[in-house]
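Weekend entry, working from home. Most of the wet-lab plans are on hold until the incubator is repaired, so I used the time to fold the two sequences that have been sitting in the queue since the last round of cloning. Logging both here for the record. First:
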Amino acid sequence: MAKRPAARFVCQACGAVHTKWSGKCDACGEWNTIVEEAAAPTNRPTKTGNARTSRLELVSLEGISEPPPRTRTTIEEFDRVLGSGLVPASVVLVGGDPGIGKSTLLLQATCALSRAGSRVLYVSGEESADQIRLRARRLGLTAPELDLAATINLADIAASLEADRTRDVVVIDSIQTMWLETIESAPGSIAQVRACAFELIRLAKSIGFSLILIGHVTKEGALAGPRVLEHMVDAVMYFEGDRGHQFRILRAAKNRFGATDEIGVFAMTDQGLAEVPNPSALFLAERRGNIAGSAVFAGMEGTRPVLLEIQALLSPKSGDGAPRRAVVGWETARLNMLLAVLEARCGLKLSTMDIHLNIAGGLRVNEPAADLAVAAALTSAATGHPTSPGEVYFGEVGLSGEIRQVAQGDLRLKEALKLGFSDAILPRRVSTTHARSKAPPGLTLREIGHLSDLVQRFSNTEPS
């Protein structure tokens, strides 16, 4: 009688395996995520001498390889994040909150690919084929050659792909719904997600089609399922945005065939997702330049310069507790550091104020180059003096108050000039290790070396 495989306890958040159940996972610290799963039976290993083996094929590091061919989706923002299109036999993981527009984006992309002549299969484990047709009709999409399938049985999907090996692109919506009968656990569990993804990736690599997996994210913003899934794929993209906001951001967190931190900007309309080729103009469309507490930041997202409005609002502290620090689109810890520098190095009293900081447009800024723009918005709000409507800011602030150089200054300046700005406030070059940013014709550069110089500029300005 075959011995029944022993059960094991697996954390559904990080994939850590435990010998017994516990309320808290020791690996990731999450509570109530450990679930009992049946261990997969393992075959007895064979001796190396008796197994069929072959020597590795060794190649030299020197040499030139041709760049991989690309299949463009004709959706320019999507192709930008991919790195100029899909690579054959590559695996792309697209994650995002439920209802954010992942299925809509991929349906638009697959329809475009199908119309361009690619053989595309769209497999849905969440919707029926009729539901997909209704959504396509509502969005005005037509693609007679696009094949649809509604199933969660991975064995059926694998058999179809093996029988017809001419597919160019396969979309799985979503990987958490797929089910493999050899795994004794429910769909969406760690074991099922890992096993289903491994089998689909094996098929993509052996047959040569491009595989796109749609994945849900947890409330913390991480992709649901094991983090090892991100290591198995070639590219990881997050589709971000607020449901109450029209903007959607497709951000590359990992890409073996292109740049990381690249973004594509879309606007949600009644006709689906529309591309935004000039996001800077869209983010600044509703800006009013005569309001204190507003500053324009010349930022970089991957290889794309983006101009954003940073808004700050100060009000007297309410109640007896600690003052509030409400931040949207930026790091709270970095705001606290910047407030300490403004108070300790520049004499600006902000410790007794409630402070609200917002990055207008719904984009999240992660680069330290935004320090100078945030400081300008805070100083403007504190003094009541608005920034000039024609000024942009970028630069990193150190703990001693010095303004440090940041990369790609020329691209930031060109984007500012293109949108009609006349002045740029940027760090002063203090060494020969940093190349001086060249001012495009029509743009005046105003270099500052210390944060106190910025505060002094507002103190000498007439209040509005």
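Second, folded right after the first finished:
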Amino acid sequence: MKFEPLNLSKIKTYPLKERKNKVKIKDFINLNLFYKDFLSYLSSLPSILAANDLKEVVNLIFKAYEHKKPVILAMGAHVIKCGLSPLIIELMKKGIVTAIALNGAGAIHDFEISLIGETSEDVAENITSGVFGMAEESTQLLNEAISNCLGKKLGLGQVIAEKIEVLDNPYKEYSILYQGFKLQIPVTIHVAIGTDIIHQHKNCNGAALGEGSLHDFKIFARQITKLGDGGVYLNIGSAVILPEVFLKALTVARNLGYQVNNFTTINLDKESHYRPRVNVVQRPTQEGGKGYSLIGHHEIMIPLLARAVLEKIALS
């Protein structure tokens, strides 16, 4: 049996230069700029894929700052555990970050840092002996602070910051919650019951915890109402809780008649997750604005982004 091959002799071709190409030499890394100042280094990066996104994000944050639009930062606890609190605080002091949202774990790590200058226990080691989450000071003091939310229309962020101030924690300058309190920048905390070590203890008041978190949600939603026409929202290292909180707060803002459109959303994490992709990057900006996803480790990406923005502002 013989199988007849297709005759390719009449294939039509066209000149290479007439083809639409996605990669061009003008977009290659620029070594002349690579060795100069940091912004020149950033400009030297290829204008391709994530490098181009990074440059756009830097410009959008700068424009938000320049036009006094919000730059809201939602953070998972890992940002604090990566040693980046001083940099986040610097962005707050410089007036770049205008509001911060934390999950419950973020608040705990922030408080522990302010108290003893250390945080993040060895879960694998402590879970086997039943002592995971059983550090006395963290649970006792935080639950005491949270009990002040009950019936007082106070958010978790405020009562924990006030607790840090009253105790005069020795490392409070490293606390995002405390610095937000001093700078009058809202730092809100959004919890899910049962997810944090302080929920394991008898002095945890569920009513106070819920009331404080709900109050913080309303404060957060107020900040979201200001995002339209140039604001920037960053979700860093939260795969579930904060993307869901953001989507609900955005819905509330639009339901109440606020025109929250034409803004920028950025998800920054070491890997891609479903909820940040759809609830931060895609859905909120589908009728105006743009969403970005930057993948990389926090301890590399956040300093890179922050340095670029700070230098751009310094040179403006």
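Plan for Monday: verify the second prediction. The mean pLDDT is 92.
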